[in-house]
Automatic annotation (TrEMBL):
A Pfam family annotated for this UniProt entry: LysR_substrate
Protein name per UniProt: HTH lysR-type domain-containing protein
Stretches assigned to the HTH lysR-type domain: 1-58
SUPFAM superfamilies: Periplasmic binding protein-like II (SSF53850), Winged helix' DNA-binding domain (SSF46785)
Cellular component annotations (GO), alphabetically ordered: protein-DNA complex
InterPro entries linked to this entry: LysR_HTH_N (IPR000847), LysR_subst-bd (IPR005119), WH-like_DNA-bd_sf (IPR036388), WH_DNA-bd_sf (IPR036390)
Organism: Streptosporangium minutum
GO molecular-function terms, A-Z: DNA binding; DNA-binding transcription factor activity
Keyword Transcription regulation carried by entry: yes
Keywords (A to Z) from UniProt: DNA-binding, Transcription, Transcription regulation
The family this protein is said to belong to: Belongs to the LysR transcriptional regulatory family.
């Protein structure tokens, strides 16, 4: 059954005449009559009886009008819902983000979105970059916050847009009692080669690979005694003198153990933070607003501090 003709029939029924429906629709009477005839032919029954002063619904017309009214109500509701999405009075955005971004960046962006669009629902799922990309590919999230270390070249994914949000400096983290913790002005870089005999703490698989490459570039192989992808645990181990490590500034912004000192190290290159989404998501108002909030939150990324 043609929904368009059904709505024209509804207008005829509520106007009480074909002429009244034509005036409401801005059509000619013959055009309205033609649509009515097509609909009656489609249902196989007369829907109206033509009277000198208008029309009278048949029993079939009365039944069909109830359904036409229900359809019109649902269409108006759909218009209202779509308008609410377009005006960002409601809408859901699902975001996957790596742990330090989840702690240091995402809450601020979510708070900003809540201020701008109180009806929006933002849902966070913590995930390391490879998992976040998988979640994006399978449609389980709308946005993915990821990172790459210096020298890494992320693969291109057809249909995905990758935007660089900024750089996240990597810092040397030492126990407060360490000889190099206060041996020079805080802004003077520490030469990693001087730490070649230290015990080191590794992180996630990609972070440990970056640690190995960084130390190799400095001329030594680090003695990695512990491995954890939890930056709180890393700092706890360092604070107790059980090793030293490299941590990104975002992790240090999210949590700083009072028992550690943060130093700039020579030739430590930052990691790059990316925001990734499907190309067609550019046309979804809620996703666009979330992207804007993340840009506003991380532009620029917080400068490193000791």
């Amino acid at each position: 059954m043609d929904a368009h003709r059904l709505l024209i029939f509804r207008q005829i029924a509520h106007s009480g005449s074909i002429a009244g429906a034509a005036r409401s629709l801005g059509w000619t009477q013959p055009a309205v009559s033609q649509h009515l005839r097509h609909l009656e032919r489609q249902v196989g029954m007369a829907l109206v009886l033509r009277r000198p002063r208008g029309i009278q619904l048949t029993e079939a017309g009365t039944v069909l009008l109830r359904h036409a009214d229900a359809i019109a109500t649902r269409l108006h509701a759909a218009d209202d819902d779509l308008d609410a999405l377009a005006q960002l009075r409601e809408g859901t955005v699902r975001l996957a983000a790596f742990p330090s971004a989840s702690a240091a960046l995402v809450p601020a962006a979510m708070s900003l979105l809540a201020q701008r669009h109180p009806g929006m629902d933002v849902r966070l799922r913590e995930a390391e970059p490879p998992e976040a990309l998988d979640l994006l590919a399978t449609g389980e999230v709308d946005l993915a916050l990821t990172f790459t270390h210096a020298g890494e070249h992320p693969a291109d994914h057809p249909g995905l847009v990758r935007v660089v949000l900024g750089e996240d400096p990597v810092r040397l983290v030492l126990p407060r009692s360490h000889p190099h913790a206060h041996a020079a002005p805080p802004d003077q870089p520490v030469n990693l080669r001087l730490l070649s005999e230290e015990r080191w703490i590794g992180g996630c698989e990609r972070c440990t690979a970056n640690l190995l490459q960084t130390c190799q570039d400095a001329g030594f192989v680090p003695d990695i005694r512990h491995s954890t992808d939890d930056y709180v645990v890393t700092q706890a181990l360092i604070a107790r003198g059980l090793g030293i490590g490299l941590l990104p500034q975002l992790a240090l912004d999210a949590f700083r153990n009072p028992g550690v000192t943060v130093r700039v190290a020579a030739k430590l290159r930052p990691r790059t933070v990316h925001l990734i989404h499907h190309r067609e998501a550019d046309h979804i108002p809620a996703v666009r607003s979330a992207v804007r909030a993340l840009h506003d939150t991380v532009s620029p990324l917080p400068p490193g501090s000791s």
